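Predicting holo structure, S-adenosylmethionine bound.
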Amino acid sequence: MSIHVPVLAGEVKVLLNLKDGDKAIDATMGAGGHTRGILFSVGGSGRVLAIEQDVEMIKMFGDVPQNLTVENANFRQIDDLAERNGFATADAILFDLGISRWHFIESGRGFTFGNPNEPLIMNLDKNSDVSAASILNSMDERGLAGMFAELGEIRPDIARKLAREIAETRKKRKFVKVGDLLAVVSKAVLKRGKLHEATKIFQALRIKVNEELENLDIAQKKAFDILATGGHLAIISFHSLEDRIVKNYFRELSKNGKAVILTKKPVIARREEILQNPSARSAKLRVIEKI
Ligand SMILES: C[S@@+](CC[C@H](N)C(=O)[O-])C[C@H]1O[C@@H](n2cnc3c(N)ncnc32)[C@H](O)[C@@H]1O
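Done. C-alpha coordinates:
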Protein backbone atom coordinates (compact mmCIF):
# COMPACT_ATOMS: atom_id res chain seq x y z
CA MET A 1 0.00 0.00 0.00
CA SER A 2 1.35 3.46 -0.90
CA ILE A 3 1.40 5.61 2.19
CA HIS A 4 0.40 9.25 1.81
CA VAL A 5 3.09 11.42 3.39
CA PRO A 6 1.48 14.59 4.79
CA VAL A 7 2.66 17.69 2.95
CA LEU A 8 4.08 20.75 4.71
CA ALA A 9 3.70 18.95 8.05
CA GLY A 10 6.15 21.17 9.95
CA GLU A 11 4.68 24.39 8.55
CA VAL A 12 1.13 23.23 9.32
CA LYS A 13 2.09 22.40 12.88
CA VAL A 14 3.58 25.85 13.49
CA LEU A 15 0.81 27.79 11.77
CA LEU A 16 -2.11 25.93 13.35
CA ASN A 17 -0.61 27.11 16.65
CA LEU A 18 -2.43 24.47 18.71
CA LYS A 19 -1.76 23.88 22.40
CA ASP A 20 -2.64 21.30 25.01
CA GLY A 21 -6.37 20.95 25.54
CA ASP A 22 -7.42 22.66 22.27
CA LYS A 23 -10.17 21.49 19.93
CA ALA A 24 -9.29 21.09 16.26
CA ILE A 25 -10.92 19.86 13.07
CA ASP A 26 -9.08 18.07 10.28
CA ALA A 27 -11.57 18.41 7.42
CA THR A 28 -9.65 16.07 5.09
CA MET A 29 -8.39 13.18 7.18
CA GLY A 30 -7.10 11.02 4.32
CA ALA A 31 -4.67 8.47 5.72
CA GLY A 32 -4.44 10.60 8.84
CA GLY A 33 -0.92 12.00 8.58
CA HIS A 34 -1.95 15.51 9.60
CA THR A 35 -4.56 14.12 12.00
CA ARG A 36 -1.79 12.42 13.97
CA GLY A 37 0.21 15.65 14.09
CA ILE A 38 -2.82 17.57 15.32
CA LEU A 39 -3.56 14.92 17.95
CA PHE A 40 -0.01 15.30 19.18
CA SER A 41 -0.37 19.12 19.36
CA VAL A 42 -3.61 19.09 21.37
CA GLY A 43 -2.37 16.38 23.76
CA GLY A 44 -4.51 13.94 25.70
CA SER A 45 -6.80 16.63 27.04
CA GLY A 46 -7.57 18.11 23.60
CA ARG A 47 -10.09 16.83 21.09
CA VAL A 48 -9.97 16.32 17.34
CA LEU A 49 -12.75 15.85 14.79
CA ALA A 50 -11.57 14.30 11.51
CA ILE A 51 -13.77 14.31 8.41
CA GLU A 52 -13.20 12.09 5.37
CA GLN A 53 -15.52 11.42 2.46
CA ASP A 54 -13.85 8.23 1.31
CA VAL A 55 -14.47 5.31 3.63
CA GLU A 56 -11.51 3.39 2.18
CA MET A 57 -9.15 6.07 3.50
CA ILE A 58 -10.63 5.92 7.00
CA LYS A 59 -10.02 2.16 7.13
CA MET A 60 -6.28 2.82 6.76
CA PHE A 61 -6.01 4.77 10.00
CA GLY A 62 -6.07 1.90 12.46
CA ASP A 63 -6.97 2.34 16.12
CA VAL A 64 -8.84 5.55 16.87
CA PRO A 65 -7.83 7.17 20.20
CA GLN A 66 -10.64 8.23 22.53
CA ASN A 67 -10.12 11.95 21.87
CA LEU A 68 -10.49 11.55 18.09
CA THR A 69 -13.91 11.47 16.42
CA VAL A 70 -14.00 10.34 12.80
CA GLU A 71 -16.86 11.23 10.48
CA ASN A 72 -17.25 9.59 7.07
CA ALA A 73 -18.85 12.58 5.35
CA ASN A 74 -18.39 15.47 2.97
CA PHE A 75 -16.68 18.48 4.58
CA ARG A 76 -19.38 20.56 2.92
CA GLN A 77 -21.43 19.62 6.00
CA ILE A 78 -18.70 20.75 8.40
CA ASP A 79 -21.16 22.96 10.34
CA ASP A 80 -23.56 20.10 11.17
CA LEU A 81 -20.72 17.65 11.81
CA ALA A 82 -19.03 20.07 14.19
CA GLU A 83 -22.21 20.86 16.05
CA ARG A 84 -23.20 17.20 16.39
CA ASN A 85 -19.80 16.31 17.85
CA GLY A 86 -19.47 19.11 20.36
CA PHE A 87 -17.24 21.37 18.26
CA ALA A 88 -19.50 24.43 18.27
CA THR A 89 -16.21 26.32 18.11
CA ALA A 90 -12.76 25.07 17.10
CA ASP A 91 -9.30 26.47 17.81
CA ALA A 92 -7.95 25.40 14.43
CA ILE A 93 -9.30 23.88 11.23
CA LEU A 94 -7.23 22.31 8.45
CA PHE A 95 -8.17 21.48 4.86
CA ASP A 96 -5.59 19.49 2.87
CA LEU A 97 -7.49 19.44 -0.41
CA GLY A 98 -7.66 17.07 -3.34
CA ILE A 99 -7.02 13.36 -3.32
CA SER A 100 -4.27 11.23 -1.86
CA ARG A 101 -1.47 9.34 -3.50
CA TRP A 102 -3.38 6.14 -2.77
CA HIS A 103 -6.27 7.36 -4.91
CA PHE A 104 -4.01 7.87 -7.90
CA ILE A 105 -2.02 4.68 -7.55
CA GLU A 106 -4.16 2.03 -5.93
CA SER A 107 -7.83 2.96 -5.74
CA GLY A 108 -8.67 1.46 -9.13
CA ARG A 109 -11.09 4.33 -9.84
CA GLY A 110 -9.48 5.74 -12.96
CA PHE A 111 -7.95 8.91 -11.54
CA THR A 112 -4.98 8.89 -13.93
CA PHE A 113 -4.34 8.14 -17.57
CA GLY A 114 -1.59 5.73 -16.51
CA ASN A 115 -4.03 2.87 -15.87
CA PRO A 116 -6.06 2.38 -19.08
CA ASN A 117 -7.99 -0.66 -17.82
CA GLU A 118 -9.49 1.03 -14.79
CA PRO A 119 -13.15 2.08 -14.88
CA LEU A 120 -13.81 5.82 -15.24
CA ILE A 121 -15.19 6.39 -11.75
CA MET A 122 -13.14 9.19 -10.07
CA ASN A 123 -15.62 9.44 -7.26
CA LEU A 124 -14.71 9.81 -3.58
CA ASP A 125 -18.23 9.07 -2.40
CA LYS A 126 -19.20 5.44 -2.89
CA ASN A 127 -22.91 6.27 -2.59
CA SER A 128 -22.95 8.78 -5.43
CA ASP A 129 -24.21 7.86 -8.91
CA VAL A 130 -22.07 10.49 -10.60
CA SER A 131 -18.89 9.19 -12.20
CA ALA A 132 -16.48 10.37 -14.86
CA ALA A 133 -18.11 7.87 -17.24
CA SER A 134 -21.63 9.15 -16.54
CA ILE A 135 -20.50 12.71 -17.28
CA LEU A 136 -18.76 11.72 -20.51
CA ASN A 137 -21.80 9.72 -21.60
CA SER A 138 -24.48 12.26 -20.76
CA MET A 139 -23.28 15.87 -20.57
CA ASP A 140 -24.06 17.92 -23.68
CA GLU A 141 -21.22 18.95 -25.95
CA ARG A 142 -21.23 22.57 -24.84
CA GLY A 143 -21.11 21.54 -21.19
CA LEU A 144 -18.17 19.23 -21.86
CA ALA A 145 -16.24 21.95 -23.68
CA GLY A 146 -16.93 24.42 -20.86
CA MET A 147 -15.86 21.90 -18.25
CA PHE A 148 -12.52 21.15 -19.94
CA ALA A 149 -11.80 24.83 -20.56
CA GLU A 150 -12.78 25.99 -17.10
CA LEU A 151 -11.75 23.15 -14.81
CA GLY A 152 -8.83 21.84 -16.87
CA GLU A 153 -7.73 25.31 -17.99
CA ILE A 154 -7.42 23.93 -21.51
CA ARG A 155 -7.47 26.26 -24.52
CA PRO A 156 -11.13 26.77 -25.54
CA ASP A 157 -10.59 25.62 -29.15
CA ILE A 158 -8.96 22.39 -27.94
CA ALA A 159 -11.71 21.90 -25.34
CA ARG A 160 -14.35 22.25 -28.07
CA LYS A 161 -12.53 19.78 -30.30
CA LEU A 162 -12.33 17.28 -27.48
CA ALA A 163 -16.01 17.72 -26.61
CA ARG A 164 -16.97 17.18 -30.27
CA GLU A 165 -14.88 13.99 -30.42
CA ILE A 166 -16.49 12.68 -27.21
CA ALA A 167 -20.00 13.41 -28.54
CA GLU A 168 -19.22 11.58 -31.79
CA THR A 169 -17.60 8.61 -30.09
CA ARG A 170 -20.43 7.97 -27.64
CA LYS A 171 -22.92 7.63 -30.50
CA LYS A 172 -21.07 4.38 -31.27
CA ARG A 173 -20.08 3.15 -27.81
CA LYS A 174 -20.25 4.27 -24.21
CA PHE A 175 -17.26 5.48 -22.21
CA VAL A 176 -16.41 2.84 -19.63
CA LYS A 177 -12.66 2.67 -19.08
CA VAL A 178 -9.76 5.10 -18.86
CA GLY A 179 -8.52 3.73 -22.18
CA ASP A 180 -11.77 4.81 -23.89
CA LEU A 181 -11.11 8.40 -22.88
CA LEU A 182 -7.43 8.20 -23.73
CA ALA A 183 -8.25 7.08 -27.28
CA VAL A 184 -10.37 10.19 -27.78
CA VAL A 185 -7.85 12.46 -26.08
CA SER A 186 -5.04 11.30 -28.32
CA LYS A 187 -7.21 11.76 -31.39
CA ALA A 188 -8.51 15.21 -30.51
CA VAL A 189 -5.80 16.83 -28.47
CA LEU A 190 -2.53 15.15 -27.96
CA LYS A 191 0.48 15.37 -30.05
CA ARG A 192 2.76 12.43 -29.48
CA GLY A 193 4.24 12.33 -25.99
CA LYS A 194 2.45 15.46 -24.86
CA LEU A 195 0.82 14.23 -21.69
CA HIS A 196 0.32 17.57 -20.00
CA GLU A 197 -3.08 18.05 -21.65
CA ALA A 198 -4.22 14.57 -20.58
CA THR A 199 -3.39 15.41 -16.97
CA LYS A 200 -5.53 18.52 -17.18
CA ILE A 201 -8.42 16.66 -18.78
CA PHE A 202 -8.39 14.10 -15.98
CA GLN A 203 -8.17 16.90 -13.43
CA ALA A 204 -11.21 18.63 -14.93
CA LEU A 205 -13.29 15.47 -14.74
CA ARG A 206 -12.26 14.73 -11.18
CA ILE A 207 -13.10 18.25 -10.04
CA LYS A 208 -16.49 18.01 -11.74
CA VAL A 209 -17.38 14.53 -10.42
CA ASN A 210 -16.63 15.55 -6.84
CA GLU A 211 -17.87 19.15 -7.08
CA GLU A 212 -14.56 20.15 -5.57
CA LEU A 213 -14.77 23.90 -6.14
CA GLU A 214 -18.33 24.23 -4.84
CA ASN A 215 -17.47 22.14 -1.79
CA LEU A 216 -14.44 24.29 -1.01
CA ASP A 217 -16.30 27.55 -1.45
CA ILE A 218 -19.10 26.47 0.88
CA ALA A 219 -16.94 24.68 3.44
CA GLN A 220 -14.32 27.39 3.97
CA LYS A 221 -17.07 29.86 4.88
CA LYS A 222 -18.72 27.44 7.26
CA ALA A 223 -15.32 26.64 8.77
CA PHE A 224 -14.63 30.31 9.42
CA ASP A 225 -17.96 30.60 11.25
CA ILE A 226 -17.01 27.69 13.51
CA LEU A 227 -13.56 29.06 14.29
CA ALA A 228 -13.04 30.55 17.76
CA THR A 229 -11.74 34.11 17.99
CA GLY A 230 -7.96 33.84 17.69
CA GLY A 231 -8.36 30.47 15.96
CA HIS A 232 -6.47 29.54 12.81
CA LEU A 233 -7.89 28.29 9.50
CA ALA A 234 -5.30 26.60 7.25
CA ILE A 235 -5.98 25.46 3.70
CA ILE A 236 -3.57 23.55 1.47
CA SER A 237 -4.50 23.60 -2.20
CA PHE A 238 -2.94 21.84 -5.16
CA HIS A 239 -4.07 23.77 -8.22
CA SER A 240 -4.69 27.38 -9.15
CA LEU A 241 -8.50 27.09 -9.26
CA GLU A 242 -8.63 26.05 -5.61
CA ASP A 243 -5.95 28.48 -4.55
CA ARG A 244 -7.81 31.40 -6.13
CA ILE A 245 -10.98 30.56 -4.18
CA VAL A 246 -9.04 30.48 -0.90
CA LYS A 247 -6.96 33.58 -1.67
CA ASN A 248 -10.00 35.68 -2.59
CA TYR A 249 -11.97 34.59 0.46
CA PHE A 250 -9.07 35.25 2.85
CA ARG A 251 -8.53 38.71 1.28
CA GLU A 252 -12.22 39.53 1.69
CA LEU A 253 -12.12 38.53 5.37
CA SER A 254 -9.00 40.60 5.91
CA LYS A 255 -10.48 43.62 4.10
CA ASN A 256 -13.59 43.42 6.25
CA GLY A 257 -11.51 43.30 9.41
CA LYS A 258 -12.61 39.78 10.30
CA ALA A 259 -9.28 37.99 9.96
CA VAL A 260 -5.55 38.54 9.73
CA ILE A 261 -3.71 36.81 6.91
CA LEU A 262 -0.74 34.95 8.43
CA THR A 263 0.74 33.92 5.09
CA LYS A 264 1.25 37.04 2.96
CA LYS A 265 2.46 34.71 0.24
CA PRO A 266 1.35 31.07 0.22
CA VAL A 267 3.75 28.72 1.96
CA ILE A 268 5.25 26.21 -0.47
CA ALA A 269 7.33 23.10 0.13
CA ARG A 270 11.08 23.29 0.44
CA ARG A 271 13.20 21.59 -2.19
CA GLU A 272 14.17 18.75 0.18
CA GLU A 273 10.52 17.96 0.85
CA ILE A 274 9.65 17.91 -2.85
CA LEU A 275 12.56 15.54 -3.52
CA GLN A 276 11.22 13.14 -0.90
CA ASN A 277 7.53 13.66 -1.65
CA PRO A 278 6.71 14.79 -5.19
CA SER A 279 3.05 15.40 -4.18
CA ALA A 280 4.28 18.47 -2.29
CA ARG A 281 5.43 20.15 -5.52
CA SER A 282 2.21 22.04 -6.19
CA ALA A 283 1.03 22.46 -2.57
CA LYS A 284 0.18 25.99 -1.40
CA LEU A 285 -0.68 26.66 2.22
CA ARG A 286 -2.64 29.75 3.25
CA VAL A 287 -3.55 30.52 6.86
CA ILE A 288 -5.66 33.17 8.59
CA GLU A 289 -6.37 34.04 12.20
CA LYS A 290 -9.92 35.01 13.17
CA ILE A 291 -10.18 38.38 14.88
C1 LIG B 1 -4.61 15.27 0.15
S1 LIG B 1 -5.63 14.08 0.92
C2 LIG B 1 -5.42 14.39 2.62
C3 LIG B 1 -4.24 13.70 3.19
C4 LIG B 1 -4.18 13.78 4.70
N1 LIG B 1 -4.09 15.14 5.18
C5 LIG B 1 -3.03 12.96 5.23
O1 LIG B 1 -2.11 13.54 5.83
O2 LIG B 1 -3.03 11.74 5.06
C6 LIG B 1 -7.24 14.74 0.73
C7 LIG B 1 -8.32 13.87 1.33
O3 LIG B 1 -9.50 14.63 1.40
C8 LIG B 1 -10.58 13.82 1.07
N2 LIG B 1 -11.63 14.70 0.56
C9 LIG B 1 -11.64 15.37 -0.60
N3 LIG B 1 -12.75 16.09 -0.73
C10 LIG B 1 -13.47 15.88 0.41
C11 LIG B 1 -14.71 16.38 0.88
N4 LIG B 1 -15.45 17.21 0.15
N5 LIG B 1 -15.13 15.98 2.09
C12 LIG B 1 -14.37 15.13 2.85
N6 LIG B 1 -13.20 14.61 2.45
C13 LIG B 1 -12.74 14.99 1.23
C14 LIG B 1 -10.04 12.85 0.03
O4 LIG B 1 -10.79 11.66 0.00
C15 LIG B 1 -8.62 12.63 0.52
O5 LIG B 1 -8.53 11.50 1.33
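The pocket of S-adenosylmethionine is lined by residues 4, 6, 28, 30-34, 51-54, 57, 74-76, 96, 98-100, 124, 215 (CB under 6 Å).
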